[in-house]
Amino acid sequence: MADPSIKAALAAKQFIVAPGIFDMISARIADRMGFKALYATGYGTVASHLGIPDAGVATFTDMVGRMARFSQGCRTPVIADADTGYGGLLNVRHTVMGYEAAGVTAIQLEDQEVPKKCGHTPGRRVVPAEEMALKIEVAAEARRSEDFLIIARTDARTTLGLDEAIRRGQLFRKAGADIVFIESPETEEEMKRIGGEIDAPLLANNVDGGGRTPILSAEKLASFGYSIAIYPAVGFLTMAAALERSYAHLLQHGDTNALPEGVIHDFGKMNELMGFPEVWEFDRRWARPEASRAAE
């Protein structure tokens, strides 16, 4: 069931910072931190689950099970990337129902053509605005709870310009979107204009490592009119960097002694993170004397 806390935070004008999660290790770590929401990144989830680019190959079936695991394995509400809704209007309806049943709190739908592409890579094309507006209407009708939020994303800025992206954001809001996401604005001035011209909670996509949009502080984003900042790549980029350093050290030295401090996690802490103490306590409570086992 959708968590009402995100909707309540938006109503109370509380800014939401959401780190990207892409597997259950990243989800468990982020879940302990005290964030108001977690962002289940499509790029990272497809990469970790299938080892392929986020280029529209992953299906609803590939993704909904992963989103269910994130939602059910975390206490923090999950915002989930659902690409284009995996097809036409009927697919969007099915996707919304499936993600809501999985326990997701907010679903992100975008106006790209199929197959879609990552929002900070070239070659993206968008469907007609009216076609996407219908998808938003269908999504809003398909949900069971008003606490389940619809995020409408447009990728029009890169190919059609900022004016069209803002027009689409306004249209999608009227169609029933709870949150509007203008992907890939390229300057602070563009972001400020978006905040001034779209009357809706706004989401900013802060892509570390070379995204198209400047990464701004929560305070500055809030002053521009934004309500949510997602950091989809921070988790898997950090993991990739640490793995490269650790594996390179192992290849060069033949062991993992003298790895740089902070590169490798403490094994005991990892056991605790994954819930082993509960397993050990269960084993202690249900252990039987050796004599009882021998008699069997």
Automatic annotation (TrEMBL):
Organism name: Teichococcus coralli
MF terms (GO), sorted A to Z: oxo-acid-lyase activity
Signal peptide: none
UniProt protein name: Isocitrate lyase/PEP mutase family protein
Pfam annotation, one family: PEP_mutase
Lyase among keywords: yes
Keywords: Lyase
InterPro entries, A to Z: ICL/PEPM, Pyrv/PenolPyrv_kinase-like_dom, Pyrv_kinase-like_dom_sf
